[in-house]
Amino acid sequence: MAFSGAAFAAATLFAGAPAHAADDREVCASAADQAQQLRDEGKYRRAREQMLICARDVCPAPIKRDCLEWLSSLEQVAPTIVISAKDGTGDVTDVKVSMDGTSITERLDGKPFPVDLGEHTFKFEYQGKTKEEKVLIGAGQKVRTIGVQFGNPNAGTTGGDSSGGATAGGEQKSGSLVPALVVGGIGVLALGSWAYFGLSGTSDVDHLESTCKPNCKQSDVDSARSKLIIADVSLGVGVVALGVATYMILTRPKVDSEIKTGMNSVRFDFGPTRGGAVAGLGGNF
């Protein structure tokens, strides 16, 4: 009789395993569907939550793979904010903040916070004082500062309303042109490189064809070919850089007066490879 009871318990346990796996698959599939819908609606916070569910190891491999790819793409475009607050003496941290009626923090810690696209109403509570501010959040905005001023700021300080009003990241003004000009300058230099190496490479090819073809030294042939490849790469970098610079000028957003807008660094990498060359453009804003 004891053997029969143990056998029954084991059978029940193994019978429940497929059912549990089926439940996991259903949860994963449902989370994947919701994640796509929420992402398309601009509800990035809730979409991220669903993507984390369908990216678990218990999910079927195709669903997990798709969710991981969506999550990676979402992290690049999902906006984040950093909330700051000041009173008459400087920065304060014991501020309660809610967004659209939902509490998001009981105390400021300087960490970025993910938000959805669109207009949001922020409510700040500090020592019995309450401030509210509506802020429009756009795609790709990272660590945007949402600031609030309680009371009169110290003499000689800037930012914040002297009457104690809330400011969404300080006074709004157009973004700096410096990053766009730097990128545009790189584009101009790249086009100069294209002209130099293009003319030089073409001249070398003409010389080889008129003097030694088809018995030219391989090193001379490789040198001429490398110059032409460098010219092609430089042209591509120049066109892209000038296009990016134009886009940055036309679409530069309103930025907070408390944020220093600029480019921390910019680099133009170039180097030869076997049978060609490679170039890259990068920078930190």
From TrEMBL:
Signal peptide: 1-21
Regions crossing the membrane: 228-250
Gly residues composition bias: residue spans: 157-168
Disordered, as annotated region: 151-171
Assigned keywords, A-Z: Membrane, Signal, Transmembrane, Transmembrane helix
Name of the featured protein: PEGA domain-containing protein
Source organism phylogeny: Bacteria, Pseudomonadati, Myxococcota, Polyangia, Polyangiales
